[in-house]
Amino acid sequence: MSQLNDISLVAQVVVFKNTKAFDTLVKKYQSQVRRFFLNQTLGDSELSDDLAQETFIKAYTNISSFKNLSNFSTWLYRIAYNVFYDYIRSRKETSEIEAREVDAMHCTEQENVGEKMDIYKSLKMLKEVERTCITLFYMEDVSIDKIAGIIGSPTGTVKSHLSRGKEKLAIYLKQNGYDRN
Amino acid sequence: MTEIDDKMISQFFQNEKKEIKDNGFSNRVMRHLPNRVDKLSNMWAAFCTAVAIILFFVFNGLEAILNILREAYNGTMQSSIAHLDLKSLLIAAIVLISLGVKKVCYSD
Q: Into how many domains does chain B fold?
């Protein structure tokens, strides 16, 4: 039903350039997309909102290329993933900072995120691609097949990223007493 | 990697999963859509077109155009009859006929 709704809204945007229909889509998916970026940037809310905005603008300008082969949310995650990796690449090109150092920078920028600190600390242990797979799988309930479509890798590769990510997280969570809950 | 670990990770992420309030985010996105710029230029174009149409009727544009066309037609007809060169017309006709014959022969 929700998928049908999305298709109808997308059709209104494509055919009639109906911005109200697109506004409905933005309102529906803003939380998911912003949460995705918050997890990737380890809690940098300003950067997350900028990247999320870029994602929605790209979605709007390329909406006619949405062929309904996947859910609208999967298509949106794919754009978000590309936006984030373009951002990482541009950071690397301009400042030659390694990915881990970028992560560390975001972490210091976000010292006052309070209760969210644990999740960002735990995600900091992971490589970017592992973080993407883990958060999509556990937090956004995206299936392995769909994650493979989003990151453009075979399902086997996604499974390995998930497995490595899980191992690191399990160690971190046990060290922090989560296994006693 | 045990099933317990998997459960622990799953629970950890589900506990941390929070809905993010819009707080003006979607308005911000809508303000930055490229369509807004197009819309403004379309509105400006529509306004200019409307003004042009009104002025066209106010200053009796249709009659002015008809007059100009009539004058141009009359002028052309008069000058072409006065300066009609039969010799040139004959040469042009012969060239065209020869070209036509050539084309027919080669196409066969």
A: 1
Q: Give the residue extent of every domain in chain A.
A: 2-180
Give yes or no for A86 touching B (CB within 8 A).
no
Which residue of B lies nearest to A19 if distances are taken between CA atoms?
B30
Report the predicted TM-score, pTM, of the whole model to 2 decimal places: 0.68
Q: Residue B95 class from Cβ within 10 Å (0-12 exposed, 13-18 middle, 19+ buried)?
A: exposed
Q: Are the C-beta atoms of A37 and A47 separated by less than 8 Å?
A: yes
Per CATH, is A2-180 categorized as 1.20.140.160? yes
Q: Which residues of B touch A52 (CB under 8 A)?
A: 25, 29
ipTM above 0.85, yes or no: no
pLDDT at A136 (0 to 100): 95
Is B17 among the domain residues? no
The token duo for B27 is 């308005």
Judge: A166–B29 Cβ closer than 8 Å, yes or no. Answer: no
